Amino acid sequence: MLSLEEAQSRAQDLVSAARKAGADAADAIYACNASTNISVRLGALEDIERSEGEEIGLRVFIGNRSASISASDMNPATLGTLVDRAVAMAREAPEDPYAGLAPQDRLMKKRPPALDLTDSEEPEPAALRERAMMAEDAARAVPGITNSEGGGASSGRSQIALATSHGFAGAYGATSHSTWASVLAGSGSDMQRDYASHSARHLEDLDQAEAVGVRAGQRAVARLNPVKVDSGVMPVIFDPRIGSSLVGHLIGGMVGPAIARRSSFLLESLGEALFDANVTIIDDPLLARGLRSRPFDGEGLPVERRALIDKGVLTGWLMDSASARQLGQEPTGHASRGGSGAPGVSITNVHMEPGSISPGDLMADVKRGIYVTELIGMGVNGVTGDYSRGAAGFLIENGAVTNAVSEITIASNLKAMFRSLIPANDLHFRYAMNVPTLRVDGMTVAGG
């Protein structure tokens, strides 16, 4: 793995070589990821994996023609061939009036912000194995657990460097630590599975392994003996660990490329009140130790905290430079890059701000509803907003969570769901995308 200084220098050298070879403009991105993963099952070591890979990608422009190419071999001779091929490919590429680097006057000029993304601690494999064992042992010790899919622990480190021919060069690193456990309760056809996991940038922020295991075990046991549910229209309450998927569907409809292609259910919704005025959704790339924090975007633009939904209102699209040009707007600092291909669009650390009532109060008036803890399948139409997914969770009767339910389907339309959505006050920052408990009225539930 190259140091950050070496990675940035390598990207800059590749861009300079592309310009000398005849490219009008170019950018290069270097990415390296190294990780160690340990998994155990039934108290025995099952797998140990160490992976390390690096890639450098080059994008060149000749007029409005562009080409991208990548390599995992950092040998200077290989990189020289990479440059020649990219330039030759660009000369033969079709013209794209929207292609090009980010606007030069928008590039990040200041020193990148310090986001505390790297941890000096790098656990040895023996420590990872111990943590995995502790998580699985704690899960298996929960009364009612009869089998295990395993437990695991991992640590990783990544380095990113980006350089452009019109004045940007930057690099940053990040670390990650995680623990997980997945177990089964019951037996035969009545067996139920569930899991728990936690990830953090710094080891000191990671949940204790025993706590992760206990959550996994308790969740699996709680799902035993599911009952049948009569079909009907009723409130559905989403557990925080899966409620974030609703925000994910919202973001999928906000990305500039989907708007430019006119393939989003939000196409005519800019400035519209999609949610109740009590709902605000924030994207914060500058969150210290955030799981998706970054000091600049995939095109070298500065990033900032932004309300995607402000008091219920859709504030704007999420755009890279190409989609912004196509829409006649400005890029928003949401470009993302892989080793090859043009930039895409991605969000960072997203959360929905909490409401004013507790989860208990949120369901207090629900005579019959569903508390969903698992979603299955991908039955969501990003063009129309139609929503239909398999689900499992618990029946709500007279304001209280009662029996487990499984093999049900919940359906509606995303816009209708957004309009009726009510957040509880139990927001916790545990994932890259965080929401409190969410209530959505008027969903159609089909029993299994």
TrEMBL record:
Pfam families: PmbA_TldD_1st, PmbA_TldD_2nd, PmbA_TldD_3rd
One Gene Ontology CC term in the entry: cytosol
Entry-linked InterPro entries: Metalloprtase-TldD/E_C, Metalloprtase-TldD/E_cen_dom, Metalloprtase-TldD/E_N, PmbA, TldD/PmbA_N, TldD/PmbA_sf
Chain intervals for the UniProt region annotation (Disordered): 326-345
Domain Metalloprotease TldD/E N-terminal: 34-90
Domain Metalloprotease TldD/E central as annotated: residue spans: 120-224
Coiled coil: none
Domain of life: Bacteria
Any one GO molecular-function label of the UniProt entry: metallopeptidase activity
Xref: Gene3D superfamilies: PmbA/TldD superfamily (3.30.2290.10)
Domain Metalloprotease TldD/E C-terminal: 231-447
GO biological process: proteolysis
Protein family: Belongs to the peptidase U62 family.
Name listed for the protein in its UniProt record: Modulator protein
